Amino acid sequence: MRIIYSIFIKELLQLKRDPRLFGIVFLAPVIQLILLGYAANMDVNTVHTAIFDQNKTETSRNFIRKFERSGYFEIDDYVDSYSQINNDINSGKVLWALVIPRDFSKDIQTRKPAPIQAIFDASNGSKTSIAFGYVSDIASNYAKNIMVQLADKTGRKIPVVGSIVPEIRVWYNPELKTRTFMVPNIMGIILVAIIAILMTMAIVKEREVGTLEQLIVTPIKPWQLIVGKTIPFILVGFVDVLIAIGVMVFWFGIGIRGSFVLLMFASTLFILSILGIGLFVSTVSKTQQQAMMVAQFGILLPMIYLSGFVFPIDNMPQWLQPITYLIPLRYYITILRGVILKGTSFIELLPEMGMLLLLGLLILFASVLRFRKRLG
Amino acid sequence: MFNRIYAIAKKEVRELKRDKRMLLVLFGFPVFLLIVFGYAVNFDIYHIKTAVYDQDQSTLSRNFVSSLTSSKYFDLEGYVKDESKIQSLLDTRKAMCVIVFPKDFSKQFYSKQAVKIQILIDGVDANTASQVKGYLTAAVASYSQKIQAEVLAVERQNTYTPVDIHPAFWFNPELNSTVFLIPGLIVMILIITAVISISLSVVREKERGTIEHINVSPLSTLEMLIGKIIPYAIISLSIAAFILFAGFILFGTTVKGSFLLLFISTLIFLFASLMLGIIVSSVANNQQVAYQLAALTTLLPSTLLSGFIFPIESMPVFLQWITNLTPAKFFLVILRDIMLKGVGISAFWDQLVYLIIFALVLLSLSILIIKRQNAAQ
Q1: Count of alpha carbons within 13 Å of A112, Cβ hemisphere only?
Q2: Buried-most residue among A201, A220, B195, B338 (CB within 10 A)?
């Protein structure tokens, strides 16, 4: 116990002596979380629009006003030919163009279906499908109004048939803000970036400087060395989690619906598993540069792309999905979203926490083994 | 002057040739990244887990469910017997959405009323949820129309829809998100390899001390930089060709526009990226610092601030301004324009100008830094 304690003290002293580290550990998470929190926004709020009004009547202007007033559309250009639409879309000035045909008002008066053209730049598929949703919403509301007006005029009761309308309720995140969903994820990514890399560097540095060999010839056992070296980083991780939660709650105003204790408990499991990964990386790399390479490309990139951070795992091809099971961040993100946004309980998150624990223990065990071998 | 540049370039090529492992990494690694992450970058939503709470149990409600789940978009996870189960289904992510039919659903519909289908969506992933919301709104509307038409046909009346939208989806009729995201991945891979490879090569000379030999030779700073950049520009260009080809084979991403334009703009982008690498190496004194700086200036900015994943126009203004610091932002616009839209230079000439200015500013900055360092020695 005393041996572990002295390694722990030595490690803390070393951390304290490095002035850059203070910045990395305490300032970086705040800055990164705030910056990325603002960057990570996929809300489709302003859809840039061009209008080709061939009808130019009160009716068509009325229809256009519906788009203006919805709050989703910004009309950037009124055009009077298809080639201008072509230009606007090609240059990326607008996302779509609304074409109102010459007979629009006549069709509406004579109760003929008025065809309306909506030309989209669909190169960004997901954005376009959301924008198209807005467009059809507005058009169908407009259609409904016409039916009601018609009913008033003719005195006939409409609908003459029943109709089915959806009543949609979005839970947990009713405004459908991507930020609410991204900020917890970014918290996970930042933890990985800071803690795994610090851990790796702490060991590889000693190896490069040669002090690791000095430690090895002392009667300290490998596991004692590892425990003594990891405890300070567990503390650092804990502090970082608290800082990140603080920024999330007080800066972004995203409250925690579930239990704070549960969140901290799960974070401990996650910190353990990424420290394990950091340790493992340090046993496979000889120099700090190699360690950085492996940490960035072997850990950080897969964590970003394969954890469900931005790209939902359900969308990935079947062969790729099993690989995501090996990524601790996947489980941590599920837990974060569950506890923070949904208020999910301990029992419901048991499988995720079990997997975190299992992965953490496996990787820690593997790195202790490798560590021992390298010593022999 | 050209002799000296040629000599430096030749030396650089020899060194690269000798380092077979580095070459393997330079070519193998980008393709590996493209394969693994290319399949992951995907916002297309299929197989949405759907649960149904049917209090009506009528043909009308059952037909809606079967028409919904027979598409590739919705998968039926099961029926809920009890309202209290809905909460836990959404909490545990067993269902993404729950469809609730009220008790007198079909009775009210056939008595010519407007009936509501209640739909609950797990909104945690806002991006996915907005798309699911869009699909469901459309599905209900088209089902409603279909049934109305059937009813009216029986009653021998005509249906009438006042406005009828005809959408046309240009460039990407299937609204597939992969084709939009792959160019972003290509840009990220290119900038990472370009910046890291050249900065390590320069810093290596610093570490070994061979840079001082170069400094005392009659070579000017500009000549040395150009000599160093040329071989890496050629290698990066071939990497670019290589991953474009790999993208075509794996994901079917084609180039709709002109190859000549693509070639020229890629070259300009690579020049800007390599200059970024030169700046990094002129600041860093050892390979480790160079590597860290290179990763810092490329990895996250090209992923998160380039418009690859998150649209720049949705960011707050101060952040939009910061995005100008990565050349990836400008090249991404160009690449998407050429690959997806096939438009000409008139659509993106401003981006090219930005890139050139970016590269020239970095070039003069790095000459300044290097000269000052040499003077200090």
Answers
A1: 9
A2: B195
Domain that holds residue B372: 2-42+176-376
Q: Report the chain B residue with the minimal C-alpha distance to residue A108.
A: B162
Q: What is the pTM of this model?
A: 0.83
CA separation for the pair A78, A53 (Å, rounded): 8
Residues B8 and B107 reside in one and the same domain: no
In a shared domain, residues B361 and B231: yes
- pLDDT score of A241: 92
pLDDT range class, residue B33, cuts 50, 70, 90: confident
Number of domains within chain B: 2
Closest Cα in chain A to B162: A113
- Flag whether pLDDT at B159 surpasses 70: no
Question: What does DSSP say about strands A47-53 and B114-122: parallel, antiparallel, or unpaired?
Answer: unpaired
User: Contacts of residue B92 in chain A, CB cutoff 8 Å?
Assistant: 344, 348
From the list A351, A89, A185, the residue with the least C-alpha distance to B127 is A185
Q: Which regions of A187-243 does DSSP assign to beta strands (E)?
A: none
Contact between chains at A125 and B180 (C-beta distance less than 8 A)? yes
pLDDT score at B41: 83
Q: What is the mean pLDDT of residues B81-98?
A: 87
User: Kindly report the CA angle at B200 between B371 and B230, in degrees rounded to 5?
Assistant: 70
Flag if A178 and B151 touch (Cβ within 8 Å): no
Residues A211, B39: Cα–Cα separation, whole Å: 44
Exposed/middle/buried for B270, CB within 10 Å: 0-12, 13-18, 19+? buried
Instruction: Please check whether residues B192 and B77 belong to one and the same domain.
Output: no
Judged by a CB distance cut-off of 8 A, whether residue A255 touches chain B is no
pLDDT at A335: 93
Q: Tell me the pLDDT tens digit for each residue of A288-315.
A: 767 777 777 788 888 888 988 888 888 8
Tell me which chain A residues have a C-beta less than 8 angstroms from the C-beta of B144.
163-165
Q: What is the mean pLDDT of residues B155-174?
A: 76
Kindly provide the residue ranges of all beta strands, DSSP E only, lying in B37-113, ordered along the sequence.
Answer: 48-54, 74-79, 97-101
Identify the pLDDT of residue A376: 46
B171 within a domain of the structure (yes/no): no
Starting at the edge strand that comes first in sequence, how are the strands of the sheet with A73-79 ordered?
A73-79, A47-53, A96-100, A114-121, B163-170
B352: contact with A, CB 8 A cutoff = no
CATH number of the domain bearing residue B73: 3.40.1710.10
**Residues counted in chain B:** 377
Q: What is the mean pLDDT of chain A?
A: 85
Chain A residue numbers with beta carbons less than 8 Å from the beta carbon of B62 are none
Task: Sort out which chain B residues have CB atoms less than 8 A from A314's CB and list them.
Answer: 45, 47
Taking only the tens place, the pLDDT of each residue in B318-346 is 888 988 888 999 999 999 999 988 888 88
